[in-house]
Amino acid sequence: MDIKNYLQEFRKMVDELKAHPKVRLLSFHAFEPALESDIEEVETHLGFALDEDLKTFYRQCNGLQLRWAHLDNPGWDRKELTGFVPGPFTYQDVLDDAGTIDGCVNILPIREVFLTDWVKRFGKFDSAPETVAVGDIDFSYGEFNKAIRILNLYHVSVSEAMLCSPRTQQVVVGGMGQHQVFIRSYRYTTRSYFDLLLKGKGSISFCSGRMDNKKGLVKEMIADVAEIIPFDLKTPLFSR
């Protein structure tokens, strides 16, 4: 995947969803590109340069949103989801959608990702280990928790975050709220993560690694994704 053309490829994927007979596209919004001053402000705040692939993404759009539902989803019985709604949605919309939609992408603007105090917003993991091992790099839990920057806030209990420190920059999949369990996670390179979003069509169950979605409703659409994405893109992250 050429990250320089990511937004163009994402739009093609959205068109595929729109044309699918069993899918209702609810939202799609690409924000205007991030300003160079925003990127510089974030790097000054962090004290080191951001991952080049991440900057390339943000130079195309300063945030990316998608919501869709399978027409056979039982959640339709609990909530009336109307047609396509133009413009951005909010995190409250994400909370309201819990259990009623099958696909959601909510990549946050760059300043929100890196300038928000996420520890203060969502709290710490109650039973924290002393050390978290990310590949061959050991973090103290305090250092690890501080390095977590929420990137894709798309579900009430699951999200993806940048693990961003001077020693490494990767994307990790984990939980939210008071139990910020990114220590029980999978990690991706930035590019492979964005590839996962694209080829998984933003499927909540696929992109969070939970392929046991209700009645397999999503599997029909993305059955070939496991063959497209090499297994080694997803490497376990262990705590000790």
Describe this structure in words.
Helix content is 32%, strand content 23%. The protein has 11 helices and 10 strands. It has helices spanning 6-19, 36-46, 52-58, 91-96, 110-115, 118-122, 141-147, 190-199, 204-207, 219-222, 225-228, and strands at 23-30, 64-70, 103-107, 131-134, 137-140, 148-152, 158-164, 169-175, 185-188, 235-239. The protein has a 7-stranded antiparallel beta sheet. Strands 1-2-3 form a 3-stranded antiparallel beta sheet, with helices on one face. The model is unreliable at 210-240 (pLDDT under 50).
Low-confidence stretches: 210-240
Largest sheet features:
7 strands, antiparallel
Q: What is the strand arrangement across the widest sheet?
A: 5-4-10-9-8-7-6
Radius of gyration: 17 Å
Structural class label: alpha+beta
How many alpha or pi helices? 11
- The percentage helix is 25-40%
What's the end-to-end separation, in Å?
Answer: 34 Å
Average pLDDT taken over every residue: 77
Number of strands: 10
**Run of helices and strands:** HEHHEHEHHEEHEEEEHHHHE
- Strand residues, percent: 15-25%
User: Per the principal axes of the C-alpha atoms, what is the gross shape?
Assistant: globular
